[in-house]
Design goal:
Shape: elongated
Number of helices: 13
Helix content: 40-55%
CATH class of the largest domain: Alpha Beta
Mean pLDDT: 89
Strand content: 15-25%
Structural class: alpha+beta
Number of strands: 9
CATH topology of the largest domain: Beta-Lactamase
Number of domains: 2
CATH architecture of the largest domain: 2-Layer Sandwich
Strand order of the largest sheet: 2-1-5-4-3
Length: 315
């Protein structure tokens, strides 16, 4: 049933787009994408796009390592915010929730809004919303009530944050949503801070799980809450970097194949000598010279033949 509130909401979106607000407002820009890129119409009722149970089971299986690693943080976060009339979901990188925390007495409200496991919350399917807009813009977002695109969602307030894997790629989205009219905008801003902090904690836990034998180093000079981590092996080579660390240092690609000396990256370089820790010295010289053995030998002041002999002795 289309209510007067729904008609008012549709008229507001149409007026904003006609006035060119998409150039000035991130919310209006998302509304514009919903209409012009995804072909959605806020005046048309849409059934939520939902996976079959079998499809959801396969997706959950693929996401199982992330779900397992995130579970303790999801539980802590829900204990903190669940009393505000909220539910918590963890979605995959495409916006489909695979894990959920909620209060049984409020489940019906969220189920009716489609905020449930297996439902597609990408902007392509649901227009402007916390999960989908977070994915589309690659950043944490809070979408309050009538900032949503579809009228069916204007009873929700949602705060979402992206979660990146150990190689810096988007792997999941964490969302906390409220259907409680008494949950004010100010409260949702506090919820947003908690969601962002929890997302960074999950990223750090995923990073640790991916590099179980490595020494983890926080990037100096950055807020530890930003989650800027380096994974360093026994030869003092950086073999992994979190998304925040990659952005800070401009790192790309598979660092296990293109490792870098940690001392160089952190500005702690000093003279290397073959007297102490030959294997590490040789490997760091190779890394500094992009795998060029001749250049690495010259940097160490030894012949190429000696360099290869020492490499052979270490293999």
């Amino acid at each position: 049933m289309i209510t007067a509130d729904h008609r008012t909401h549709v008229a507001r979106i149409e007026a904003a787009l006609l006035a060119g607000e998409a150039a000035r407002s991130p919310i209006a820009a998302s509304w514009s994408r919903s209409v012009r890129v995804h072909g959605l119409d806020p005046a048309t009722r849409r059934a939520a796009a939902r996976m079959s149970d079998a499809e959801l089971a396969r997706l959950r299986s693929a996401m199982e390592p992330t779900i397992r690693t995130a579970a303790p943080t999801l539980d802590r976060l829900f204990r903190a915010v669940g009393g505000l009339g909220t539910c918590l979901v963890l979605s995959d990188r495409d916006g489909v929730p695979v894990e959920r925390r909620g209060n049984a007495g409020e489940d019906r409200d969220f189920a009716e809004a489609g905020l449930w496991t297996g439902t597609d919350w990408s902007e392509r399917e649901a227009g402007t919303n916390g999960i989908g807009t977070c994915i589309a813009e690659g950043r944490a977002v809070t979408i309050l009530r009538d900032q949503h695109f579809l009228p069916a969602h204007i009873g929700l307030s949602c705060s979402s944050a992206p979660i990146h894997d150990a190689e810096g790629q988007l792997t999941a989205v964490l969302d906390v949503s409220s259907a409680n009219p008494g949950c004010t905008d100010a409260v949702m801003q506090l919820v947003a801070l908690s969601v962002a902090e929890a997302a960074r904690r999950i990223e750090a836990d995923l990073f640790r799980a991916y590099f179980p034998q490595a020494r983890l180093v926080f990037v100096p000079g950055l807020d530890r809450g930003a989650g800027a981590l380096l994974a360093v092996d026994g030869d003092d080579l950086v073999i992994g970097a979190s998304r925040a660390a990659r952005q800070h240092f401009g790192l790309r690609g598979d660092l296990r194949r293109q490792s870098l000396p940690a001392a160089d990256l952190l500005g702690q370089t000093g003279p290397d000598g073959l007297e102490d820790g030959e294997r590490g010295v040789i490997l760091r010289a190779l890394a500094r010279n992009q795998g060029n053995a001749s250049a690495a030998a010259r940097s160490l002041g030894i012949s190429r033949a000696t360099f290869h002999r020492k490499m052979g002795a270490r293999n």
